[in-house]
């Protein structure tokens, strides 16, 4: 059984991860594995957010 985060926590997590990804990209480049890892994690959170908002 998967427990969903409250929407406000998910939004905060998305915001933090987005800032981390941007910072990593600025310092290491957009093709750096760490930037890509952040991007992929952000995709997962955004997909979860989309499912919650749109059903």
From TrEMBL:
Give one GO biological process term.
regulation of sporulation
* Gene Ontology MF annotations: protein dimerization activity
Q: Which Gene3D superfamilies match?
A: Helix-loop-helix DNA-binding domain
Give the Pfam families listed for this entry: SpoOE-like
Sorted alphabetically, which InterPro entries does this protein's record hold?
A: HLH_DNA-bd_sf, Spo0E-like, Spo0E-like_phosphatase, Spo0E-like_sf
UniProt superkingdom: Bacteria
Q: What is this protein called?
A: Aspartyl-phosphate phosphatase Spo0E family protein
Native source species: Metabacillus litoralis
């Amino acid at each position: 059984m998967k427990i969903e985060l409250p929407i406000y926590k998910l939004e905060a997590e998305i915001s933090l991860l987005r800032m981390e990804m941007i910072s990593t990209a600025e310092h290491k480049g957009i093709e750096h594995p760490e930037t890509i890892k952040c991007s992929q994690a952000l995709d997962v959170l955004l997909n979860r957010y989309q499912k919650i908002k749109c059903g």
